[in-house]
Amino acid sequence: MKKFSERVDLSGFSIEDIDVSEIDRIADFLPKNGVIDLNIAESALALTLEGQNLCQEKIAQVDRWIGIKETEKNKSWSYAALTLAKAAGVKTAKEKEWFAQADSAYIDACNNLTLAKACKKWFENKANYFQTWHYALKTFLKRDYSIENISGISATAYNAGSSFRRSSSEDEDMCGDMEWK
Asked: pTM of whole model > 0.85?
């Protein structure tokens, strides 16, 4: 049994080191020009769910990472405003605030938080991209299968049960007598 804590474990985690190759592979498989055939739609339908799942798993980790980075940002601001500003001889609250905002550790913490939020947004956009394609492919397949059912011709049993009958006369085509004879 796998525990939830293992799914969102952040030991050794880094935003820059997240492997997105599988997500890119799935995205590259999807049609870029909107031209879809039955084989592509059936193959891609399951892949879109896999892509959504991969993105959602990463979003959970990144969300936790954002919480940690927000804490680090607040901690670095507090340290700069309360400790470093006092050591630098800053007296007023407003000057301490400005001092803390200019502190390099605080700026680094803000940049790391912004990177984590951008990463989360990227995964959310990719998950939405896969969800949109999943709906489009599902709709395409539903329409294609309904047309097949209405026509009475099954793709799995091409001529079985077909109501289409050819004329008994070889001299006739579907429009009547052949004029070239």
From this structure: no
